[in-house]
């Protein structure tokens, strides 16, 4: 299949490479920033452009991977080509494309991508939604070429997945950084925490989070929690966070949530 | 060396197994709960007791791995044997042992242990503190038999490490559970998030957390954050958490913290 990528960010970069490696042809990359368009285009053997009106009709699928609030405007511009248009956004409804074409779908990769880091795309869950069954089958075939993990998820499900991903990825990564800052104040190497961070994530690959919760809050160890809050004196933002997260763990443990 | 374990919880279980595998002899396991003492003793070929006054002097090191507030009382009871006494607690000062004996040290394993899960002990950072250089050398030799990652950390450093571990392990694990709950409400499989959780932890094994932060907050994407808060309507605890954690990410990104 011939694919055109609209966007050259983290998602577009990893997805374009995965599709090229699977034998598809990336014909063109568009980005308003010509340098970024050219860089990704170079890596996947495509043409580059920074002009919307230079995007070619000689393709099978347009894959839009840009900021959420730019998707509608791009879809409007591409509809004239009468090809399948797919976006990759977690928090954008399929309706945003359907406003301009019925030949539309979504291919949302549920992973955190950085340009500087390789990802095994075969393990990346790909969430598909489409305007009809025939388009769904086409997108599924495309997705199956690069991932072993394909899910049918509608726009409402995708939105909750995106929110859940913020809790499962963006917030934990922030907390890793808080831990690093705390150690930096005592000149202690962040390396000490790295095995712990990895093991914490590995544990929940087979087990449920609540069943492997450790630490003072799940033991309701009030002495240690009070000592920790005292160590955070002068950092009210971290104190508030410590209290709120600990309360959540205690509530879970008391069966007030259903995550058991 | 002959080792006696006081306690039979997660840390004692993993540590005793590691020392036994490294060729040391576990002579006795004490726990107030005889069933737990016998279970661990069986696994490491030791005798079991639930009576403090039945703990034998025929050992080289007592390793105390019990709840923090029980350490002092146990140390007092063991001091009569005039052997090296070591505790494994992150948040307990060495002084708690020094009140009863000068033959004392700390061996703190910085990892999250669950009885149901194997851990590669060679990668577990072991933090050592001792009453003097000679004891430090003895504990270091013992530690080096089971781990490649040995650090000299005093009581103040260990306390901050323990606090940092709460942020790097206990709180992220709680947030994994929140994500699972959010998906459960829509009947979406937690398996979709597992690769994301693992990749998030793997990313910071080589890189710094702030340099690989992704998500709406680091992009200062106010539209998505507002939509997420709306999806959390009726869950004020999660809304407060979302706001506090997002504010932290935004502040970091604006250079208001030093984690760059």
Characteristic key phrases:
homodimer, 260 residues, alpha/beta, N-(1-d-carboxylethyl)-l-norvaline Dehydrogenase, domain 2, 9 helices, 8 strands, 6-PGluconate_DH-like_C_sf (chains A, B), DUF2520 (chains A, B), DUF2520 domain-containing protein (chains A, B)
- CATH superfamily of the largest domain in chain A, called what? NAD(P)-binding Rossmann-like Domain
Helices and strands of chain A, in order, run as EHEHEEHEHEEHEHHHH
Q: Trace the largest sheet of chain A across and list its strands.
A: 3-2-1-4-5-6-7-8
Radius of gyration of chain A: 22 Å
Distance between the termini of chain A: 45 Å
Number of helices of chain A: 9
Q: What's the CATH class of the largest domain in chain A, please?
A: Alpha Beta
The quaternary state of the protein chains shown equals: homodimer
* Number of beta strands of chain A: 8
Into how many domains do the coordinates of chain A divide? 2
Helix content of chain A: 40-55%
What's the overall geometry of chain A?
elongated
Largest interface: A-B, 102 and 101 residues
Overall CATH architecture of the largest domain in chain A: 3-Layer(aba) Sandwich
How much of the sequence of chain A is in beta strands?
Answer: 5-15%
- Predict the CATH topology of the largest domain in chain A: Rossmann fold
Low-pLDDT residue spans of chain A: none
